[in-house]
Specification:
- Pfam families: DUF1949 (PF09186), Impact_N (PF01205).
- By secondary structure, the chain is an alpha+beta fold.
- The chain has five helices and eleven strands.
- The strands form three sheets. Strands 2-3-6-4-5 form a five-stranded antiparallel sheet, sandwiched between helices.
- The longest helix has 17 residues.
- It is elongated and about 75 Å long.
Length: 201
């Protein structure tokens, strides 16, 4: 589904060290709780001997997220998941999961030290990950003759359009998606080419 707010453009991992404790931070774009569970399970598999695998995520628009959660994974309450989530919220980014894996280095950090260390680890990865904004898109059903398929494909290439599916019968039925701001241009193109056009609702 298209988003008109910033989301991480991909996966990134960064490592920091605080008083001999290693903090390995990972960021992922996510769109469901199932994806969160899969990434957390993978972190446990990748670092089976780590002392803690803490995380936080938010799904939906920054500032009014549809869903958010955090986990301290055995660290004192509020010293890991909450600082990670706070950094996520300050970054104005949606659909994002940050996992911080900790290897204890033998020196206790104290509650304040843990908060700073987990927030710092989250900051290190979120400040470097790319951001992407996908504009809201709409879909339209376009019915056209066989000779018009190539012109439609050509128009899509120049106007950020995608042909999502195509069916052939006596005519061609194409499901086309375009950024919402280009819906009027698609309608005008279809009118000019005498193609039947119906916006999906």
């Amino acid at each position: 589904m298209s988003k008109d707010y910033p989301v991480p453009s991909g996966y990134l991992e960064r490592e920091t060290e605080v008083k001999k404790s290693r903090f390995i931070a990972r960021v992922y774009p996510v769109s469901s709780r199932d994806e969160v569970r899969e990434h957390v399970a993978r972190a446990h598999q990748d670092y089976p001997d780590a002392r803690h695998v803490c995380w936080a995520y938010q799904i939906g628009r920054p500032g009014s997220a549809a869903e958010a959660a955090m986990n301290d994974d055995g660290e004192p309450s509020g010293t890991a998941g909450k600082p990670i989530l706070n950094v996520i919220q300050h970054k104005d980014m949606g659909d994002v999961l940050v996992i911080v894996v900790r290897y204890f280095g033998g020196i206790k950090l104290g509650a304040g030290g843990l908060v700073r260390a987990y927030a710092g680890a989250a900051e290190s990865v979120l400040s470097e990950v790319g951001r992407t904004i996908q504009q809201s898109r709409v879909q339209a059903e376009v019915v056209l003759g066989f000779a018009d398929e190539q012109p439609l494909r050509h128009w899509c290439e120049g106007h950020e359009g995608h042909i999502e599916s195509i069916r052939y019968s006596d005519r061609v039925n194409a499901l086309v998606s375009v950024p919402e701001i280009r819906a009027g241009e698609l309608a005008a193109f279809c009118d000019a080419q005498k193609m039947d056009y119906r916006l999906e609702t």
